[in-house]
Amino acid sequence: MTEPSTCAISAPADACASRSTRTEAELRAFMARAVHEVRETNPLAPSITNTVTQNFVANAQLAVGGSAAMVYLPDEGECVASLGGAVYINLGTLLPVYEQTVPATARACAAAGKPWVLDPVGIGSLRPQLIEAVHENPPAILRGNASEIIAVAELWGLAGDSSDDASGDGPRGVDSTDSVDAAERAAVACARFTGGAVAVSGATDLVTDGAQVARLSGGSPLMTCITGSGCSLGGVAAVYACVADPFVAALTATAVYNLAGLRAGEACSGSGSFQVAFLDALYNLTAEEVAEAPLILTGASGTQAL
Asked: Which of 45, 112, 215, 272 is deepest in the core (most CB within 10 A)?
């Protein structure tokens, strides 16, 4: 089994900036292994996620071979941090109790040496406070749209010149006002800080560990016509984080979603049937198909081919 990165669990501060890079062939082999291991071991990846998408997140986790559990209270979060292989925290539809639940769960994950995945789901209200609160126990994987990733980098004091290309408008609800390319420097900065990985969703997705940047294509325009495609991606990333390091887990989840979205879009007759076809596609994808997903790998500067 590919062990979760200890860099993403221990103290951050650019701890893994000097990590060794891996070739595209090596990463594709690790992605296939992650898919195989999830199917074989049915790992538990509990979620603290928004009430609008709980059902879809759980079904997506089950479809790829994982096991799901939905919680929201502080003691529940601390408990599942020790029980699960990884934890998913989604900051949509926040309840007042999340002011205790989110930091407590992040601390418990750090104490247990378990990776966790964060989806900020827009920025506003209690969210900035919670994002700043987990700064000392950051996620192994940060997943969001371009505007969300830029906002997180700013909240963590990592922006520097990384937001020069940003619109400055921030997220519009859960929608991005920035391009994926505009968020690349913010994503790299966040990944170097956490020692984990950052996945930026868009027309072409970007995944980075701070040393390497991957761009993945696929999906379907209908993914924006259903509720929970992004939220469930975070949950599936947590499933793969149970068996793989953060970069491989984020790559695998993104590749799986792009392939499933593409197939569902070809098989459906509208947004309702797309949701069903998407879950079916997640369930039926093979490790070999995921390993062959469209992927372009470069250095974090965006200039060095690997």
From this structure: 45
